[in-house]
Structures
1.
Amino acid sequence: MTTTAAALLALLVGAVIGAGIAVVIFLSLRERDRARAQVSRAIPEGIQEVLHGMEDPAAIVDASLTVLASSPAAAPYGIVEAVALTADELRQVSRKARDSEGVATETFRLMRGAAPAESRLVTVRATKVSPRLTLLVLRDITERERVEQMRRDFVANTSHELKTPVGAVSLLSEAIESAADDPEQVRIFASRLTGEAQRLASLTSRIMNLSRLQASDELTEMREVPVDEVLTSAIEASLIQAAAASVEIVRGGDRDLYVSGDAQVLSEALSNLITNAIAYSSEGSKVGVGVKRVDDVVEVAVTDRGIGIPEADQQRIFERFYRTDQARSRRTGGTGLGLSIVKHAVQRHGGEVRLWSRPGRGSTFTIVLPLIEAPIEATPGKRKKKNKMKASKNGDHR
């Protein structure tokens, strides 16, 4: 019994000692791995492949802020493998994530591209991957911020523009009520009230048109549109204004050209340009409307010999509610939305609007649209053949 007990005791002591040694070895190995991790610059398996497949700019940087791996989209921001981060903002957010033992998010501007570089607004999220490695992911929010700013400006400008005619209508209504016993004054106030109501209706209509053009929905009335049809419609809509201003509209250029689009939208856009040209032209002058085919596009130019647009205003002329001549706009009833409508209408048709202007010499606005082939039924030979077939069906064999 004594021998057996001693053997069991020895076995137990051996097991305890073995377990202790195993624990010590395990703790030593873990401490070794932890120490290696503290100084290791090895990228965890799979991360580099993920980075190379990302569309957003992203990178892994070490404690010295050197880029170990990056996505292709990061290069334009100066984030290149084996090169240290140069942007102070990126360096700061990387340190912040590493020191806080977690995630850091910052929004700031970075330069993108080579000279001339452009400033972009980005949101950067830095995540600590290991004691020495940090993951940076950039999200370009420039366009989102621009659209949001446009929305805020649109609401503010619309409220401001609507306030003037609404206030005038209210005051004129009170004036009519006060002058109820004076028919002559009532007629004067009623006439002014009608003018303000028309101005309010015009402004509301243009705001709705611009909102429709800026919507993401596709244009619903797209078809093969004769440019001649668009010009005729736009010119006829402006004849009364031209006659009142003693301005002659002269049309010239190529004929029988076609574009794909919404005829009404294009006609309204061209009418806006002609209306502006008339409003800014002197009495007895001419407004030219010309059409020219250039390779695979159609150019429709509206030219006046008016006051012209200063160079400082030419970059902003297509902004909503922007006016170069506030006094003239008030006299002519301008809303400041016409050129913005033109720009968006043409862009929705895959084209662009160009401007040439010199103060004192006049302005030329050119609408550029993709050219399409004339439909078969519109070609002269096909029309003649079609008419003969029709005559044959009717029994006319001349």
2.
Amino acid sequence: MTSEYCVLPKKRKILIVYIATLAGSLGPIAGNIYVPILPQLENVFAASRSAIAGTVSVFMAVFAFCPLIWASWADYGGRKFLYILPLSFFIIANVLLASVPANLVSLYILRVVQAFGASSVMSVGAGIISDIIEPKHRGKAISVFMWGPQLGPVLGPVLSLIAIGDWRWVFGFLALLGFVVYLMILFLLPETLRFLVGDGSCLGKGYFVQPRIQEKVVEGYSRPPKPSLVGYWELLKYPPVLLCSINSGILFATFYGVMVTFASVLQDQYHFTDVGTCLSYLCPGTALIIGSTIGGWLSDRLASRAKNYVPEHRFSIQIAGLLISMTGILGYAWTVEKMAPVHPVFVFTFLAGFGMTWVFVSTTTYLTETSPSQPSANVAIGNLMRNMAAAICTAIVDILIDKMGFGWCMTGLALLDLIGICFVAILLKWGPRWRAKKTEPSE
């Protein structure tokens, strides 16, 4: 083995990161392109608001659990195949959604298949980043990779404008986008799992790769444990993974409470048109991109300045991010409750998104470092907590608003982020000790 972590040329690493980023955008775009057209779907499918909202909840629930299936196998047997197989289901589901007659049962079933197919890309993509980028510089790469999930709130609502002519174009577009990404993965993305390809010396110098199912095993790299429920249970019992994942879940639930109410607030209270509502999602979406980029840069800056680097150094910026996000949600709660002008609503949704993604980038980077042989599995657990929390929030937020009022409901969601601040303090103090007790096979 060479002393270099990965010998692939910088330009090729950049290409791999951007392919993983684009692939990572598929699920979030599929989820967010759908939210602004919910009122339209109520009419098309002659269904209640709660029945159509249920298709969002089932998508988020499947998107939460299925990465657990893909991620552990991606850590054990390879990354590329665990991209290609699920993506086929995603493409097929969107083709059918764009073509079959409008039926509520079919919509539910195909949304489940759609989420199943898109669910591998987040955790597997994080594993790819950990394969080719050494830990001290991983924050910036993760911040770029996080653009993928964050492009959902940015592009999804804007792209939903194509549904103004016909709602089926939403799914036709997703099928075409999925197919383009499928071809890029097939011909431009090499296998990166270090157990199979080591430091990348065996991958050659060209950009194009020959499609094949399995790479030969490179000697000198330990194989991760075989996927099992026991293995996941061991990761869940591992405090750094558990606390990071719960923290992410709580934070994402609070932000998703903003996102799922945003369209209704703009249309019912501020009388925005469908086009204006779709374009308004650019505000919190842009905040996600900016927050991720700055957060990743600061995270690596802290890591590079440390004399004796430990992954917990990345957490020192999280308390600021949590407070910014909490301020945004509290401001959103009471500007809407008091029927203030619309401009503060945009300011506070921007702050909510900026603070959330600032936290996420360092959390995701940490999850790839705290148990290096299972980065995809760690990120999958984080994804599980986030999307479970989002699904629960989507299902109950309207009920809570009816019972508590908009301002107090959103205030309650914002105050949940105080739990995250406690978790950050715990990890800063005890995280290094917990990691020291966990024996990892040497690479």
